[in-house]
Amino acid sequence: MSDKNINLNEEKIKSDLKDLIRNSVEETLNALLDQEADALINAQHY
């Protein structure tokens, strides 16, 4: 039977996860701001 070892770089995982979350939150907030801006522009036409 062979032993299987897994090595994890915890700092790299944390850094990558932070970047992923930051990008996801940024994209979500930008989309919400775009929707709000579109709603304000359309409201001015009436």
Characterize the structure shown.
With 46 residues, this protein is mostly helical. It is built from 1 helix and no strands. The longest helix has 35 residues.
What's a concise summary of this model?
The chain is mostly helical.
How helical, in percent, are the residues?
A: over 70%
Strand content: under 5%
Order of helices and strands: H
Query: Strand count, sense and closure of the main sheet?
Result: none
How many H/I helices?
A: 1
Task: Sum up the overall morphology in one term.
Answer: rod-shaped
The average pLDDT score comes to 90
Alpha-beta content class: mainly alpha
Number of strands: 0
| Distance between the ends | 75 Å
Cα-atom Rg, whole angstroms?
A: 21 Å
Name some characteristics of this structure.
single chain, 46 residues, mainly alpha, 1 helix, 0% strand, rod-shaped
List the helices and strands and how they pair.
Layout: H1 10-44
